[in-house]
Design a protein that fits this description.
A: 236 residues, 7-stranded mixed beta sheet, B: mainly alpha, flat
Chain lengths: 236, 182
């Protein structure tokens, strides 16, 4: 099974060398999608011997990840894993998130911090972000009946069918929760596996206080659009 | 019509004509796309026509029999609807073009990677190739803007609270509530 780790990165020059080394240690290919960084992200990734797709303008996490899906599609990969460039996702969990896909049990596997059976107690989630995440979890459950405990986790593995779908349709801004609804609507199977995450090593999170506060509204509007779009398609 | 509504009509005409001239100037200097401009020009001409035919239009003719305050409220609502419609129309175009720009950016980045042009400085290289100044990062409101917005909201809430308890001086109340309170 040909596997690719998609590493979206925006000003992550400091975190990348170690992360890329760890990914290589797991026997996976990697591609860095440099989202118009102002630092040496692209140079550092190139120096590590990893292909770099450099976006000339900043597209945000959604646009960067989708570029990675397009890259994987054109290079004939079977499985992709999204690993954030800030080093929070530990590549030691790659086999765990890929296993259900290899076994044909799921089309998308989420590395989850909040599974009731095995929560990641060491990981500290800021309060505002936790509220936003509970909100999107509840909304997703109400819209689809799907119980996902970690809707904002960026550590995700996808089989070819799923990432081929995402190469065509993928939400922007903070796309994680909306992407799950899109997958569910398209009939893909979603599964969660327990993982632990590390604290950010360098740089700043994109989830500022303002963004965290606005996140629930952004998710609610995005969900509304997707649900309305689906019912419109069904009516037609 | 009352003389007050005639004054309002004149102001509306002047503002709309100025807006039309400005729109045409923007198009002439290439700052507005002709496809976008044609909608704005049509909308502005329609608005000027509506103001000119003031007395014959059902809603406005009705308001001319009302007091000044009602006329202003109806005008404000109509103006808001007009602006909201134009803004939504523009936002729809911006959304469509954002999706196109996103797809083109992705294709460009993938092609550059294919031919081995993916080193650092892609954003400035591409800008130089197409003859544009370096592309700025997406802007977000700075801390000062956030503070000003917060101060504005607090001031509005505080004014509302004080006003509801009749805590404001008489002259401020008169200023805030204008003529209809008399």
């Amino acid at each position: 099974m040909k596997c690719l780790c998609i590493v979206p990165a925006h000003n992550e020059a400091a975190s990348l060398p170690h992360l890329l080394e760890e990914i290589r240690g797991q026997g996976c290919d990697a591609v860095v999608v440099d989202d118009a960084s102002r630092d040496d992200t692209a140079t550092v990734a190139s120096a590590a011997g990893v292909p770099v797709v450099s976006l000339p303008v900043n597209l945000g996490i959604g646009g960067a990840v989708q570029t990675g899906f397009m890259y994987a599609l054109r290079h004939g990969y079977d499985v992709v894993v999204q690993v954030d460039g800030d080093g929070q996702h530990d590549p030691r969990w790659l086999p765990a998130v890929m296993a259900p896909i290899a076994a044909g049990r799921a089309d998308c596997v989420i590395g989850s911090r909040y599974l009731p059976d095995a929560p990641d107690r060491a990981y500290h989630t800021p309060f505002v972000r936790r509220v936003g995440m509970h909100f999107s979890t509840t909304l997703l459950w109400m819209a689809t009946g799907l119980r996902i405990h970690d809707t904002t986790s960026g550590l995700r593995a996808l089989n070819r069918g799923a990432f081929e779908f995402f190469a065509r349709h993928y939400p922007t801004d903070h796309p994680e929760a909306e992407a799950l609804l899109l997958l569910h609507q398209a009939g893909f199977r979603i599964l969660e596996v327990p993982v632990t995450m590390r604290s950010r090593r360098q740089g700043r999170s994109l989830f500022t206080l303002v963004r965290s506060t606005l996140y629930p509204f952004r998710v609610a509007v995005g969900f509304l659009g997707l649900i309305a779009n689906e019912s419109g398609r069904r009516d037609r | 019509m009352t003389s007050f509504s005639f004054a309002v009509q004149s102001i509306c005409l002047v503002v709309l004509t100025a807006l039309l001239v400005y729109t045409l100037a923007l198009m002439r200097t290439g700052r507005l796309n002709a496809h976008v401009t044609v909608r704005w020009v049509l909308a502005e001409v329609a608005a000027i026509g509506a103001v000119l035919l003031w007395g014959r239009l059902p809603v406005i003719a009705y308001t001319s029999t009302l007091g000044d305050r009602e006329l202003l409220v109806v005008l404000a609502v109509l103006f808001f609807g007009f602006i909201a419609f134009l803004m939504l129309d523009s936002l729809q175009r911006i959304s469509a073009q954002s999706a196109q720009v996103r797809r083109l950016t992705q294709e460009l980045a993938l092609l550059r990677e294919q031919v081995g042009h993916s080193g650092s400085g892609a954003r400035t290289e591409v800008a130089a190739e197409v003859g544009l100044p370096p592309m700025p990062e997406r802007t977000r409101p700075g801390p000062l803007a956030t503070v000003l917005i917060a101060v504005w909201i607090i001031a509005c809430v505080a004014t509302l609270a004080v006003e509801s308890q009749d805590g404001l001086p008489r002259w401020v109340m008169a200023l805030l509530t204008a003529r209809y309170k008399q």
